[in-house]
Amino acid sequence: MDMHTVVVGTSGTTAEDVIAVARKDARVELSEAAVEALSAARRIVDALAAKPEPVYGVSTGFGALAGRHISPDLRAQLQRNIVRSHAAGMGPHIEREVVRALMFLRLKTLASGHTGVRPEVAQTIADVLNAGITPVVHEYGSLGCSGDLAPLSHCALTLMGEGEAEGPDGTVRPAGELLAAHGITPVELREKEGLALLNGTDGMLGMLVMALADLKDLYTAADVTAALSLEALLGTDRVLAPELHAIRPHPGQGVSAANMLRVLAGSGLTGHHQDAAPRVQDAYSVRCAPQVNGAGRDTLAHGRLVADRELASAVDNPVVLPGEGRVESNGNFHGAPVAYVLDFLAIAAADLGSITERRTDRLLDKNRSHGLPPFLAEDAGVDSGLMIAQYTQAALVSELKRLAVPASVDSIPSSGMQEDHVSMGWSAARKLRTAVAGLARIVAVELYAATRAVELRAAEGLIPGPAAQAVIGALRAAGVQGPGPDRFLAPDLAAADAFVREGKLVDAVETVTGPLD
């Protein structure tokens, strides 16, 4: 377990902290300021709970049942009941890293001092994270409004010692047993605490933060594979000149063009577009790669802006306003800001996949590949080469296009029409995770095809650039084979996918180019 410690304070957190806790098992500690803020907010809740006037979430029912005033002797039961009844998810278990991210982000909001829970409730979340206990959370149950209710409820159920959770060894057991095994006392919820544990955008935000990190790496990888395809197709790198991109100053476009130009430095393959079969311009999928990759990069920048704002937020309803000494209802739990950007990123991912597949198809088509053998096969007709690798890539692209259909334009009213417009942000996040995984595979297929094509050119005496040579050497060292007769292709493609996802492609290039953007 990573011994790095993330300290949770009162002013939000960073994307890097979320990833450290979710993916690297970093330890979590509450700052003294957070404990003080929690205590101060709790005093306000206790004072309001002692008054006869009803306060939503403190002394009333919830949602469409908010009109009922709850007597003091039933309020602990009220808080337990909301957790039990809302833990109504169905379907497959979601990934451990997603559960850890949403728990950490809920802890972040609790520590802000705007929710009114006692410090010991927040500390229990930290203890569960540090013990490596992961509540069982299901795929379906969140509408992305009033927070990710069902997912967060399953987490809160674990804090109460109920339901099921996964231990550090990956075995699912009763949550009470796991807490006892790690010396953690289950919480006994008091006024507002059950509600405060459920009411946030934490699941969709956690998935956004991780998708942004993954897509940042994939966009750099896609700049590299686009450059390798340009090289293999004997294209011109003149379209990457900085002065051309300066006159259309979208930041991402300039970054992608600069990355591609550095990958192509010293290549003996570029600039042959006026040779035996002269062409004035390369095809769009080659020539416009910086424009498409760059637009995606700018979409990521917008996504990071939204994520950073949400990471600095305290999302709950009602919220405690310590300076005012009061508790107020609000609509900050609505997931629209996060849902929109999750959908936007899925659109960008689909289009990057689409242009990537078009370059692969061009590499395999003898009528458009400028002298490469059909399907990059050794003995076309006897060998099929990479024909079906492109089928697989096309299937993935088609899937990404379906996943690009926005979830956030849908809304199904719930809670007796009290919650009559919802964001579907959880659904947007779930499909984006699927799209990111598919995009990595699509980029991997282009890498596989482009490196084989570059090697075939080298066999004809056209020497690739140092960056391409570094990629080919690292890829072959990773067990991905080069040109030759047909063989069982799936293992090679899986290894290429891992090579991309684990950052080895960019690492190999950067041994020559230095850090890419």
SSE topology:
Layout: E1 5-8, H1 15-24, E2 27-30, H2 32-49, H3 75-86, E3 90-93, H4 96-110, H5 119-130, E4 134-135, E5 138-140, H6 149-159, E6 164-166, E7 172-174, H7 175-181, H8 193-198, H9 202-232, H10 242-246, H11 251-264, H12 284-287, H13 289-311, E8 319-321, E9 326-328, H14 336-364, H15 387-403, H16 425-459, H17 466-477, H18 490-501, H19 504-513
Parallel strand pairs: 1-2
Antiparallel strand pairs: 3-5, 4-6, 6-7, 8-9
Helix pairs in contact: 1-4, 3-6, 4-5, 4-9, 9-11, 9-13, 9-14, 9-16, 11-13, 13-14, 14-15, 14-16, 15-16, 16-18, 17-19
Largest sheet: 3 strands, antiparallel
Radius of gyration: 27 Å
Along the chain, the helix and strand elements come as: EHEHHEHHEEHEEHHHHHHHEEHHHHHH
CATH architectural label of the largest domain: Up-down Bundle
| Global outline | elongated
How many domains would you count in the coordinates? 2
Order of strands, main sheet, comes to 4-6-7
| Number of beta-strand segments | 9
Give the end-to-end Cα distance, rounded to a whole number of Å. Answer: 30 Å
CATH superfamily of the largest domain: Fumarase/aspartase (Central domain)
Instruction: Give the helix level as a range of percent.
Output: 40-55%
Catalytic activity: L-histidine = trans-urocanate + NH4(+)
Enzyme class: lyase
Keywords: Cytoplasm, Histidine metabolism, Lyase
Cross-link (5-imidazolinone (Ala-Gly)): 145-147
